[in-house]
Amino acid sequence: xxxxxxxxxxxxxxxxxxxxxxxxxxxxxxxxxxxxxxxxxxxxxxxxxxxxxxxxxxxxxxxxxxxxxxxxxxxxxxxxxxxxxxxxxxxxxxxxxxxxxxxxxxxxxxxxxxxxxxxxxxxx
Length: 124
Description:
It is a single chain. Helix content is 14%, strand content 52%. The protein is mainly beta. The protein has one domain (2-114). Strands 1, 2, 3, 4, 5, 6 and 7 form a 7-stranded antiparallel β-sheet that branches. A hairpin with a 7-residue loop joins β1 and β2. The protein is elongated.
């Protein structure tokens, strides 16, 4: 018998930075953190959204921003965010494996968890 149990949720934020007058990415990176529940992971993603009107749904599993002004002068930054569910699977009472599955990250789900309403009209 196989038993599946949600172990955690993982918020993944990726970014790229570029000089404001250039299209070449000069710096990129990502950050992944594990949270005990989906609401906590969504709130962590919400911390990156300073101006919701410039964010939009990229597909069912990802939201992203357009190019935004960075704290550094003449630099722009763009973000994408996604959410994953990590599940433990046990077979015959013993740990078997951990799986990672993308979870839909929709504007409604984000709004319900954070109160942030990303604007579909003027977003990325």
